[in-house]
Every structure is written in structure tokens, then in C-alpha cells.
Amino acid sequence: MNGKMRKEEKIRRTGLLLAALLIAAGLCACGSAAAEPDLLDTVLERGTLIIGTEGTYSPNSYHDESGALVGFDVEVAEGIAQHLGVEAQFMEAEWDSLFAAMDSGRVDIVVNEVEYSEDRAEKYDFSQPYTYVHGALMVASDNEDISGFEDLAGKRAAQNLTSSWGKMAESYGAELVSVDSVSQCVELLLSGRVDATLNAETAFSNYLSVNPDAAVKIVAETDSTTSSLVPVPKGNERFLAAVNEALDEMRESGRLSEISEKYFGIDVTQEN
């Protein structure tokens, strides 16, 4: 990063921090007993945004051949940090541990294709959507028994047990077999240890672009889309507003679309 960019980020961060302090002072002047602490203040004062992500989920969050952490969600998170004028610091963990890390304060946000759910909404506020993606059902090429989601009843599906895709497969009556990556799903499909796997269309399209000869096929897609959002610990309204401002900025500049095309080959950042 050159000196000019560092200076601009420092000015941006200082401005955000000053705005946060002025808002807090205004609240006190209006008779508030004490301004509520907000995660935005902590992030700006620290100078880093700590982001939870898996690091094993291509093309959203994974390591390239050089070992660098890359992916669609990684670049979205970096864009949020850049808007705030702070450095992006990633903490990698398995999916089940990401929210526990946010609950304990070890990470500020989780950026890892997180979808809204009523259970999560009890503990977190959510940003605006930044993707709109169809779900897809994959089976082995020689599988003629499964042609739609309803055919999952009584079948074995390779899924992350706590993901929304796993819950969807379970809702159709599938027996879940635990996996951590799309490549694991395909391995189990090809070995016959599972019958199907359900995931985002983007995850499958990315896998097939790298492995075009894989003996698998997509047999169904959901009519509706699901969206990725950034969860924020409840009670941090200014931090949530700053995250939304960052997403607005990336969408208006075309950066979100560019990142989507880079990793997915299609633009999934616009609502159909």
C-alpha cells in the first residue's frame, strides 16, 4: 500500500472515529446517562477489523496454490475494512466455530456466505444482502433415482450439518453425512457413500469450472434465491450502518459485481 493510500485510509478512519465521538457526545448532551458502547469505536481505535471465515470453502473463502487466503467473501470483507480505513485481519475456523468466535468477541463479523435465520436473528443484526444465489442439487452422473428435491427423502446427502443447505436437505427427508467442503461432497458422491449434495449454485459452478470432467451433474435448482449477509452482534447500530455503507459503496462502484464475476463467472450481487 503506498503512502497516499495509507494517508487516505488514516483520514477516513479518523473521520469515522470523530463522527462516532460526536454522536456519543450529542447523546450525552441530550440528557443520556451514558452513550452505549458500539463495536465501531473498538474497530476504529484498534485499527483492524477481525473477520471470521472458514478458509476451506471455495470459491468464497479458501487458500490458493501459494497458500494465500482468497475468495469472494474474503474480498468483500477486505472492501468493508477498506471503507472503514482499517486493516482486515482474518481468523479461520470451522463453520460451527465461527459464531462462537463472534459471541466471545474474538472476531467482529463473520463473512462466509451467512444467510438469515430466525435463530440467528435472536443474537445478531444483519446487513443488507450482498448476493442472491439459487440452491442446486448435485448427484453422480449415473444416478437416475434423484431428479428433484423431493427425491431426497430417505437418501444420504453430504452436507455441513449446521449450514442452511444442510437444513434444507434435511427438510426434504435426507439423512445427512457430515462434510466440510464441496470437494469432499463430490468424493463421497463418486464413491457411492452418499446419494446427493445440496449447495449454492456458485459453489458447484466453481468446482465444475476447475474439474470439468467430474462425473457429477446438477439435477435441480431452487426457484427462489437465498442471500448472503454480514451478521453483527446486536446493539451495535453504528457499526451495522458502517458495514451497510461499505456494501453500498462497493455495489455503486461496481466492485461487488467485479468480484462476483472473478470468482463465480456470473454476477450474483444483483437481485433478479
Description:
There is one protein chain. It is built from 10 helices and 12 strands. Helix 1 packs antiparallel against helix 2 (39-46) and helix 3 (72-84) crosses helix 9 (237-253). Strand 8, helix 6 and strand 9 (175-178) form a beta-alpha-beta unit. It is α/β, with parallel strands linked by helices and 272 residues long. The chain folds into 2 domains: 3-131 and 228-264, D-Maltodextrin-Binding Protein, domain 2, CATH 3.40.190; 133-226, Periplasmic binding protein-like II (D-Maltodextrin-Binding Protein, domain 2, 3-Layer(aba) Sandwich), CATH 3.40.190. A 3-stranded parallel sheet has the order 4-1-5. It has a 3-stranded antiparallel sheet with strand order 10-7-11. The two termini are 36 Å apart. Its main location: other. It comes from Candidatus Eisenbergiella pullistercoris. Keywords: Signal. Residues 48-267 form the Solute-binding protein family 3/N-terminal domain. This is Transporter substrate-binding domain-containing protein.
